Amino acid sequence: MIPALEATGLGRRYGRAWALRDCSLSVPAGRVAALVGPNGAGKTTLLHLAVGLLSPTAGSVRVFGETGRRDRVAFLAQDKPLYDGFTVAETLRFGRGLNPSWDDGFARERLAALGIPLRGKTGALSGGQRAQVALTVALAKRPRLLVLDEPLANLDPLARHAVMRGLMEAVAETGLSVLLSSHVVSDLEHTCDWLVVLNGGRVQVSGAVDDLLEGHRLLTGPAEEADAVAARLPVVARDRAGRRETLLARAGDPVLGPAWASAPVSLDDLVMAYLREPEAAALPRPALAR
User: 245 and 131 share a domain?
Assistant: First the structure.
């Protein structure tokens, strides 16, 4: 199956500084992929390269095997840009005029179900309503890949839940591929099934969430034995508290001495470990799911 998004040696430089460098990853079609990283990690640069708003300085990026065409890609920026002076109906007309694959019936039905009036000005809507209108415009394009840059930024918890629920409903109905960036891991844990961790302009880890969680363990034991254990395993991060030390290691469930306890990792454990250790070696890239 052709990947929804594939980057090979991708890089973007501004002057002498690289915002993104030697980025190689492959996201299978039909996945909801989370792009996670600190501010300045290169997330927005990667998203802009994926949707064609930027050109690479190095390498290449393909969407469903194509490097140039982006007609079946929809992008929702962090500030959810809408023309405040337009009514919602005028916003839909604008979207229809720009997108040959526009589904006007879907857009109107979705907004009606959300109780958002077509006659209201977008500038007068609440933050959650603006986010829903912007998401509706993106979905009504009927894209194969939907790219979202911090779609939940500046929304209250109720609005965040509503936006993610609507997004997952669209994925379930259409098989849409999604790539979204976020700082809030808890928003991603029950919605995203693929994870990309970006730090310092480089990909640290990329793969199916279930496989990544199964492939890591939290190992806790005597601090005096930690070096010997770490020498046997690929350790991502270490944390010492008194006479005990915890290692987050890339290991299924290693056999250690009786003084050591092994526990599964959470998505938050995994992401934070890689973000705290920017030099941690990335996992081998898994084969694409079929």
Answer: no
Structure tokens at 125: 């809507």
Separation of alpha carbons 159 and 131, rounded Å: 8
Neighbours of 77 (CB within 10 A): 17
Q: Are residues 191 and 229 in the same domain?
A: no
pLDDT in tens, 154-173: 888 898 889 999 999 999 99
Residues 231 and 127 in one domain: no
The total number of structural domains in the chain stands at 2
Q: Which of 5-8's residues contact partners 24+ apart within 8 Å by CB, and which partners? A: 5/33, 5/50, 5/61, 5/62, 5/63, 5/145, 5/177, 5/179, 6/61, 6/62, 6/65, 7/46, 7/49, 7/50, 7/59, 7/60, 7/61, 7/62, 8/59, 8/60, 8/61
Tell me: pLDDT of 277 over 80.
Answer: no
CA–CA separation, 184 and 33 (whole Å): 14
Question: Under a CB-based contact definition with an 8 Å cutoff, are residues 146 and 14 in contact?
Answer: no
Helix (H, G, I), strand (E, B) or coil at 104: helix
pLDDT (tens digit, 9 = 90+) per residue, 236-251? 999 999 999 999 999 8
Which of 90, 167, 103, 88 lies closest to 140, judged by CA?
A: 103
Check whether 285 has a pLDDT greater than 70.
Answer: no
Nearest-angstrom CA–CA distance, 37 and 204: 10
Q: What is the pTM of this model?
A: 0.88
Q: Report whether pLDDT(182) > 90.
A: no
* CATH number of residue 115's parent domain: 3.40.50.300
Rounded Cα–Cα distance for residues 46 and 21 (Å): 10
